[in-house]
Structure formats: structure tokens, C-alpha cells
Amino acid sequence: MTTATGRQTSNTSSGALSVRAGVHPRARHAARRPVTQLMGRLFALAGIVALCSAHVGSPDVYYEGSAGPYHVLVVVRMPGVVPGVAQIAVRVSGAGAASDRVEVGVNHFDTQTAPPLEDAARDASDPGSYLGKLWVMAAGSNAVTVQIMGHAGTGTVVVPVVAVATRRLTLYPWLGAVLAVIGVALFLGAVSIVGAAVREGTLPPGAVPDAARRRRARIAMAATALFVAAIVYGGKSWWESEDRAFQQELYRPMASRADVRDGGRELAFTIVDSGWTHRGDTVWLNAHNAAAWSPLIPDHGKVMHLFVVGESTPSAFAHLHPTTTDSNTFTAVLPALPAGRYRVFADIVHESGFDKTLVTTVDLPGPSPSTPGRDDARAAGDSDDAWTTAAGVPMGARVPLADGSILSWASGGGIPLVGRDADLRFVVAAPDGRPAVLEPYMGMAGHAVVEREDGAVFIHLHPMGTVSAASQMAYAVRTAADTTNGDVARRLASMDVSAMPMATAAGDTVSFPYAFPRAGRYRVWVQVKRNGTVLTAPMIVDVREGTVVANR
């Protein structure tokens, strides 16, 4: 999403940046604690990552799109701590690629006055590439601004990113041993210095201290030992208190559950997290030192994107769009999926722009006489719901679609490497062999879901990357006069997400910028729309270890 000079994304085979934005209430509360408490946490900090909340196991941020007259590729690697330094790589390409200057900046989502932008350094080996480094000072939702100035004018793109604490690192045993030895040496040194000062500090050179001086020295050494021990104990207690507080404020996805209802006809997804169910209870929030989550907003016109992925039946997959009456329980018509255990991933977006993926599992009983068939389920459920039980096709092979058309990997299916552009670019041919014409599917040329077979990585991709359209829109409509998220929500409610420009022009090709974060076997489902029907292409991709790069 861009400013008036351009903010909607597109895609190429180079990779892209996508981000998930918002602020976690605990993270926001932590950012306002006294400096001494925050500094204490920096030493106990395990990892603060760019958690694109829908990026399960995929921390880096990719975005590709328009910045006014320029086409840009942005890659953001968030720091390991907050405050910390984020690395931002920018590539300017396409028509009007010649740029004279690139500036980058970052600020917290609710900060009314943004800090000045800083120059990004041009890559000597690639004149179209730039690298910037920015301090991320506040945990939670932040906005990275990239401004390009060149012969075609000035273009700006704003990319929302999220920094939240997600884990706590333990101290290396060898480092603990080294610090313990140093601590004992300092302790003994302090006691010895005080004893020597009392015993011999005022004696003339060569004089021998008498018994009284030695006695006073021993008393002083004992008192010093007690004093230093009290300081050490107090420091230990403070450290443990800070550590406990830090662990309580670690970001944790909302607790949720899924179950089957109505004789197997309905799948219910319920957010059971107390922080969400008590979001309107001020007394409970104050008692638990928590801030209220803002309400949900639709993303691509849907309040929730629910993905049901087979664990015991790997070929089964469904992309559903449930409805809700209370924002706690979401229900969708359950298609005829085989019996077995399924992983359930739910994408939601808050008014603040914070979007997240909630994860749970469910055991499906399998189709029964009361389970609606494909046409019945589509008629009763959301028209954009889609599912498949077709086995995955090896990477590079042609994938037959339900209407007889064929989806092929445009790059030929070279083996992807960890951290490198996955080149998820596909071409669809009509049943007669001619190039197919793709229709917008929820405002995009296509959607894709990537899951590592063990569930450790899950991501919902669009041609604009992994970015949430609702998150970008929330940033685009926010103004300095806004004092509540409701101001933003009212503007969003007046906007038609289906009227957004498509990330790629409708044609026979669709691509999804992404880099696989880990090696292993992945299942990829590519979804496109033709003649009013959503078509799903299942694939199997084996990813190997490789050298991680920020940009190509």
C-alpha cells in the first residue's frame, strides 16, 4: 500500500516483503515501563522478532510493490532485541528505476510525529539496491517508511512491521561459569581491599600492624562481606523479578479451540483466551495489568480466514471464511473432508493493524449422510470457500485443476534454498491449451498457503506477499488527528476492499514473493479463480539449506 504517489503491491520473481502489523497490549505496556526495567529486560531477552503474526515460523518481512512511479522490493530483517537495529534492503526496478536517493524510517504505529528519514547506502555492486539500518525503539506495531527520489519524482511506501518478545534465551553454561569466577574474584577482592585499608592504611612504611588493627580489619572484612552479599542478593532478587515480569509479557497467540457441530455439518472456531473474552471488562484488565485488544476488521472482505490442513490426511485442505455474531466463536460450513486430525490456522486482523494467526487442532469424523456435498456446502457457506483432497504434485510437475486447466511452475521448479527467493511463479493454461484468464479472488490474482509438513511453518501468501491488506489500509487511513482505533475503523468501514487495485494484472500468471525460512518438506496450495470457480492446486516442495541473503 502506498501514499498518494502509490502504495498497492505487485509481485515479481525476485521476492518481496510482507508484514503483519499492530500492537500487542502487553508489548505496548512494556514499552512504557521505566527505563531501568526495560534495560534489565534487554539482558534477559531471548529474542524479539518481526513476528508477522500470520507468519508461523517465518520471521523475516518481505514486501514488493509500487512506491509512486517506482517498483520496489523491500526486505526487512528485524533486530534480535528492542531497542535494536533493523536492516532494510531496498531494490528499485522496472520503469523509472533510476533513483538518486532512498531514505528509510521507522516509527511506532500510534506515534503522531515520525522521526526524520535516514539515507540508505547504495550498493556499489548493484546501483538499484540500497541498504539502511534503523533503530526500532518501541515494541509492538511499527511502520517502516521507504521514500525514493529520482528522475521520475518522489514515491513513498509504508510497510507495517511488528516487533514483539516471543521467547527467552538461557545463559550459556560456559558463560555462566566465567561470570561466576569473575564475581567470586571481585567479591574476594572487595573484602581484601577493605581489610588491607583498615589494617595498614595509616601505618608508616615497614610498620607491622598490632593486634587491635588486625581485629578491626577482620571486623571490617566481615561487615564488607555481609554488605556485598546483601547487594548480590538484592541484585539477584531484582533480576529474578524482572525475568518473571518479562516472561509474563512474552507474546503468546490467543488460546483457541475448534470443534465439529451440527452433526458434522459445521466447524466452530472459538477464541477462548481470557485476554480476548475480557477485553471489555475494565476491572479484569486492570487487575491483570493488561490492555484491551481492539476489535477485528475484515481482511480481503472476510473477518477470518480459516485454514484446515490435514495432519493424518496430508492431502486434505480447506480455505474457509466463517461468520460470527460475537467475535468469540466463528462458524463455517464444513466440507466433506476425510476423517482424521487436522491443524487449524485462523488469520484475523485488529483495528490497530495487528494481525495474527491462531493455531489449534481438530479431529474430524469424516463425511456422513448429513455432511453437505461440494455444491451444497458452497451454497450454504461462503462463496469464496474452497477445498481439495487431491494428492500433492511434486514441484515442477504440471498440476491438473478441477475445471481441466493446468497450473505449471513458471521457473521450471528449481530446488528452493533456505532464505532465497522461492520463485513461486505459476502459469495457468486453459483446457484447450491457450493461456487462461484469471479472475480476482478476494481482490487478488491468487492466494497461496505454505505449510511445512510438521506444522512448524505456516503462511498465507498473496501476490503482494504476506502482507495483510487490512493492516496496510489501517495505516493508510490513520491520521495525526486520530485518538482511538475507532477513528480508523470508521474510515475502513467506508472503504470497499474489493475495489482495491489487484496486486498483479489479471492474466495467466500469478506469483507469490516468499523465501522459505527452514529446510524440509513443504506443502503448497495455490488458489486461483476462473469462470467464477476457485481452483486449488496442491504441490509438494522440498527445500534445502542455503546461504541466507537479504535480497537478490
Which key phrases capture this entry?
five-stranded antiparallel beta sheet, Immunoglobulin-like, 28 strands, alpha+beta, 9 helices, 552 residues, 4 domains, disordered C terminus
Structural overview:
With 552 residues, the protein is α+β, with helices and mostly antiparallel strands. The protein folds into four domains: 25-167, Immunoglobulin-like (Sandwich), CATH 2.60.40.10; 173-248; 254-389, Immunoglobulin-like (Sandwich), CATH 2.60.40.1220; 390-465 and 503-552, Immunoglobulins (Immunoglobulin-like, Sandwich). It has nine helices and 28 strands. The chain has helices spanning 25-31, 35-44, 173-200, 211-248, 274-277, 282-287, 374-380, 469-477, 485-493; strands at 47-50, 61-67, 70-77, 84-93, 99-108, 118-119, 121-123, 126-136, 140-150, 153-167, 256-261, 266-271, 305-310, 317-320, 323-324, 329-333, 340-349, 355-364, 386-388, 393-394, 399-400, 406-409, 424-429, 447-452, 458-461, 509-512, 520-530, 533-543. The protein has a five-stranded antiparallel beta sheet with strand order 1-10-9-5-6. The protein is elongated. Residues 1-53, 497-504 and 548-552 have low confidence and may be disordered.
Distance between the termini: 22 Å
Quickly give the CATH architecture of the largest domain. Sandwich
- Can you count the helices? 9
Q: How many strand elements? A: 28
Largest beta-sheet details:
5 strands, antiparallel
Number of domains: 4
What is the topological layout?
Blueprint: H1 25-31, H2 35-44, E1 47-50, E2 61-67, E3 70-77, E4 84-93, E5 99-108, E6 118-119, E7 121-123, E8 126-136, E9 140-150, E10 153-167, H3 173-200, H4 211-248, E11 256-261, E12 266-271, H5 274-277, H6 282-287, E13 305-310, E14 317-320, E15 323-324, E16 329-333, E17 340-349, E18 355-364, H7 374-380, E19 386-388, E20 393-394, E21 399-400, E22 406-409, E23 424-429, E24 447-452, E25 458-461, H8 469-477, H9 485-493, E26 509-512, E27 520-530, E28 533-543
Parallel strand pairs: 20-28
Antiparallel strand pairs: 1-10, 2-3, 3-4, 4-8, 5-6, 5-9, 7-8, 9-10, 11-12, 12-16, 13-14, 13-17, 14-19, 15-16, 17-18, 21-22, 22-23, 23-26, 24-25, 24-27, 27-28
Helix pairs in contact: 2-4, 3-4, 8-9
